[in-house]
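tool_log.txt
---
The assistant was asked to compare two proteins side by side. It first ran the structure predictor on the initial sequence, then on the second. Raw inputs and outputs are pasted verbatim so the downstream comparison step can read them without reformatting.
(1)
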Amino acid sequence: MFQPPLPQLPPEDAVLTDGVLRSSRFGDIYFSTDGGLAETQHVFINGTRLSDRLATGEPLIIAETGFGTGLNFLAVCAEVLRTNSKSKIDYISVEGCPPSKEVVAQALSGFSELVDLCNDLLQQWPRRWLGVHHLSFLNGQIDLHLHYGQAEQVLPTLDFSADIWFMDGFSPAKNPDLWSGQICQQIARLSAHQASLATFTVAAAVRTALAQAGFTVQKAAGFGRKRDMLTASYDKGFAHAKAVSPCSVLVIGGGIAGCAVAGSLQALGAEVTILDAADQPGAGASGNPAGIVVPFLTVGDMISSRLSISCLADTRKFLDAYQLILSDGVVSLDHDDRKTSRQKKLAEQGFPADLAVYKDAAELSALTGLPLSRSGLYFETGAVICPQKFAQHLAASVPRLYSAKLVSVSGQAGDWLAQCEDGRRFTADHLVFCSGADLPSLLQLVNQDLGPYQVTSGQLSDLPSTTSLAPSRIALNYSGYLTPVIEGRQYLGAGFDPTGDTAVTAAGHLHNLELMPSELRDLAGDPAAWRGRTSRRLAYPDRLPLAGPLMPGVSVVSALGARGLTLASLIGKSVARQITGHVPPLPYQIMSGLNPQRFFEKKL
């Protein structure tokens, strides 16, 4: 079945001229030359009575149709600080043509009262990649969900109930698509009962579209030379669910998935304990001495590709913050005719150069330090990391119990009793199963069966640093993968054994050798001198991860597959926020595709 390609962001069009930031595409300014911050405060902060909402201390969801330079967002942060509000805020915004960090820095440099907030925003400024970018401000009090993409494409994929809407963007006369009836209907769908909306325009078409969507619209005094602006309220809809108070959660499984969920739950105020069946850290795949972080891009517009791009952006930000990168960049070689055809199609789709760029064999040879005869994709933001260190940082302060082999579960949501093989017993409000290949048997403890699955094993070959592969400077990915030398060892992986056998064998080493491009095999040395490590993987028929609620009081994060190091952080964060009643960063469209209940729905 034909899938259209993943849409790409348009070229940057923000131009700063004589201190005024303009869009060359739309011929309009980003904010008022009479005082951009003052206009934001008048139209959006005062127009939605934000200070009254903040005074309650209740959680808020603020949504916006055009992020631009982030000035409205910064004004919200400033208002939170001014009022000393305790409200926890999810700020959800869409931007179709993101300006560069450098341009934004210049455009915001005149707002001295926002300098600290500006610096924080610029330090976290996202890569210019399609998808969601999740950023945290004011010690976690404000979460920014910044969706890069066209509003008419992004809004239908989201699911939240906003208390406040900032309807912003270039003027309706310049950019009518952002003010269409379709957009207004989506705004209404995503609004809580009695949501407030404000916008600088009073264009008749916008008033009509908002009214037809169910808003009560009225004019108010405008800012500066603008006589009028609009405010609106939404008396339909439902009050959004109040965020669940901090709960007790047992995370079953201490690998990368379990650590990602547990750390995020703890940050949201939950009492979390990790139950690890192993007797020490890193017993499973998360204990490999090295692993690759790399995107999975598809020729068509598919959930797996969108998921991978957003997750890579989030993971790379975390890895950089904690200095966990062992080797920068990954090369995906054209290993066979099928992969060559696929990668050339990907190269034609216009991905950002820092995400994926196609290079010929000579360029890749110079880049990697190895004699390559094949072209391929270069992932600049790919990386080699130590999975165990990554897991430790994700859940650094979460209590973790070892040799905790679960044998029974009883109770219900809000009142679970879990018992281990050694007699230890634990109570919790919520359970999260993150147990990798052991998931199917553990789900039987809560009388759940997700249907057919596959458990395979992969052998990692551990090479000395004395082979002719040692000059490699960048990880290679083909049907297997090769890392550079890491602390005196080099790693080759990873086999695929459909029996799930965990024994390290000579045959497994030979299999890893045979996966390599022919020009590199002779450089690998004698496999008899290699060491190894084997771990198991879990997969379901559609090869997508499992992430989300399985039944009341039970969630699952598992089956992350070969891209687990790339996917775990943002998926774990999204499921943790689901559990605690907050807005997940990942769009509803993606979370629905990962929901373990999808298998039940197919059976109906």
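(2)
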Amino acid sequence: MERLYSAIMLILAEALLNIQGTFALIPSEIRQYIYALGILALLSFIIVLLLSIKKKIRFFAAASGIIVSCASVYLFVIAPYAGTVSLHPEGDPKAVVNEFFTDICLEDYEAAHALTDSRAAYGVEMIPENDLEECYIEKLRAGYSYEMIGEPLVKGLRASQNVKVRYFNMPSTGMDVKAKTMANLDDYVQSHPKDEVYDEKNNYLDGITDLMYERAVKSVVGGGKSYFYSFDLLQVEMEYTDGRWQIVMDDELRNVLNGGTDNTGTFCENAKSDALSEVIYIPKTYVVAEEALWGPAPDQALFGKTDDPEEVQAVVDTAWELLGDQELSWSPSIKIVHGTYINYYCDDTILAITWRQRINGEYCTCAEVKILDPSQLRRKLSMDTFGSPVEQTASALARQANAVLAVNGDYYKYRGNGICVYQRELCRAELRTTDTCYFNTDGEMLFTKAGQFKNADEVNEYIEANDVLFAVSFGPVLVDNGEIQNVGYYALGQVHEGYSRSAIGQIDELHYFMMNINHTKATPDGGRIESIAQYMYDFGCQKAYALDGGQTAELVMNGYPVNPVDWSSERMVSDIIYFSTAMPETEEAE
């Protein structure tokens, strides 16, 4: 009896040491019973204490009984989750891991998914869009082999199994591809007349470096040298849920299934510019993964704030490659509001400028941005979920998204009007009330009018045909095809009254302009729709669209408002539109 009592006390002691981690594993409905039992035990202990004071019972005997009871509850309810008492769940975790890697080797990815706790696609499942991507993916799929190491370590409802995995490490091909590209180019130069290689400025003719790179990839990757393959010892974690063992898809395992990369698609897109970076100077392509919930963090050293327009112009001059043959609507001759500043940010992938000026007596905050790649124009929803009840300020959402520049969206959660698209999915289809602004994979703004569609099927056809990523519904359309749109009656936004306004427009390819007109003491009426339409047109917008106004109207740069928000208080909202840098954080640090 004494040994049994000691064993139970040891179990209880271990429970107390691991109580925090243990409770996280216990289903909520069981935890409720445990809490109730705990309260009951505490009350019993108090009663025993009171009775012992009155000498009606022996305190030690009664208290021991309560402790033993609590330990028994732990033994049968809590301890299995902590691993202090062994459970014997059905199935062999080692067999599950073996089956998973067998499925990967056999390219049966659907069966592999069924054995994990995640349905997120593996990089090895990527569908190639060209011959070079196919070359990489074929090697990745064919390159897997594995060896089970030892027996699984089982602790309650958790287990781990060591596995040695061989896989095709895509980044390991980089140096060889680069060297082969340079060798191919040298051979081409030596074997062709100069005018078939260079133009009059000694730049390579179009297509030559691309061709040399393509040949290098097919030769190097297709050859599949032994040192392109990595051997990783993985500790595959498992949990026993729903009556079966499931593999936990952690970062280490996901990296192996992505061929040693964070994202196989992004690797394939960036591999070319990496290989050619030392051959000749070419603009390097940076892409923010479509599925990413936030962009790379911008380099804080590249933000600036000044009242000197020439300082900003000096920054603009460094962005000649990003701007190409486009010109900014901003210029040093713009007269900013006295006592305010021009804010700016510039790296190889984005140039953003904000300033305040009075136009026809109205207090306007303007923002202009040029990006390198369409993936830098993005939408952020609160909690990254359509319909989330959580609302946040625009600045908080912008900081979460690592936004360089952000503008408020349509505040979709406040009203049920209009068409809403998020992550390519049609989330709401109220078709009669509002004009809709769509943003596609090319970074183009597209419009449809209220009542244009008859049903949700037509909207889905439009989304698919135009490769739409997201859409907002407030409106109206202000400028389309370079022409100001006449607005008569419109259901939202008190269009013909003085009100704080917000709008987003497109000047040119990957070149955007945003404006807020806000209430101030000097301009208490805000602005009218026809005013902001005219101003967006005057700043060169070929397309422009009104966003939610009033207290929602807000422009945010580097995580803070740059316009005078109504009543000096940010509204809690559901969404923003934002622009991010595409520079990987490691390169920014360098």
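---
observation on (2): The chain is about 35% helix and 25% strand. The mean pLDDT is 87.
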